[in-house]
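#struct-help
A.M.: can someone run this one for me? Single chain, 126 residues.
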Amino acid sequence: MIIELNPHSQLPLYRQLIDQIIYRIAAGSIASNERLPSIRDLSSSLRINPNTVIKAYRELEYLGYAYSEQGTGYFITDGGISQAKKEWQEKITRELKNSVIQALSLGITKEKIIELINSAEKGGEK
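D.P.: on it. Structure tokens below:
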């Protein structure tokens, strides 16, 4: 699992970690009942304090995305996938709507916006 944290962000590291894990669940990169990286491994690879990872994992558990098994680690819940998809779809929909409103107010035409959507759907850049 590739995670990049921004130490200069105003968002705390544990929150960035939570957001990225939830996104990966929503995108299908992490499956139901899949084990998350160990606290030690993740803190070492990200070069952050293990307490930061513990805080993120506990919050994921509290939010219903993960569950813990003593001595084994943290795993993604069955309901975590649908919950993550719903949350991210709502977030992206809000952001997309705001971006479209801004684009239209700056004179970008509806046709150009649709062209950009079609291009993005095909994986190209325009």
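A.M.: thanks! The helical segments are 13-26, 39-46, 50-63, 78-105, 110-121.
D.P.: also worth noting: The chain has two domains: 13-80, 82-121.
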